[in-house]
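User: quick one, fold this
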Amino acid sequence: MVTDWKAARDVLEVHLDAVFEPETFGTLYPGVKAPKVVLGFPVNEPPFYAAVDEIVDAAETSGGVSMGHAEVGFTLRVWLCAQHADLKTASDTLLAYIDAVFGTLMADPQLCETVDNAFPSIETAGTAADGSKRYIAAASVAIACTRYSACPAELYGAVAQSNEAIRQGGPADEGDGD
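Assistant:
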């Protein structure tokens, strides 16, 4: 499962690098400054960035079953930030960033087949003035991902073998005091 999480995160970062590449982004959103795409929060925070969270969040399995394996859900996050002296420019830039993230996931909702579904939503967004008389517009986009049949065959086989050993009085019965 963790392989799926890392693969989905890495594909998301590659896709955003491609979409936010200045020439591509400039064609899609003329006059809007493209953000720098980073994994995790940047050490020296640039005025315009899209940070792909390095850790998945809210991972869980469901009661649903597909082909004998539980469904796994997890959340990827992208933190978006735009700073500008003008509030409207900062806000409009952030809206373009959000739109680009949504569009990226609509163009590839399976993140290069690392997940079965990926659905973006704005988790939180807002603007504020900072001490340098600039406005910061920021948002967190949560991407709910679902992966069916996520259990690798090797793991499934190892658990099946241990279950068989338990049924035949194997390791689980050792040390029970009888």
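User: anything notable?
Assistant: Helices lie at 2-19, 22-28, 87-107, 153-167.
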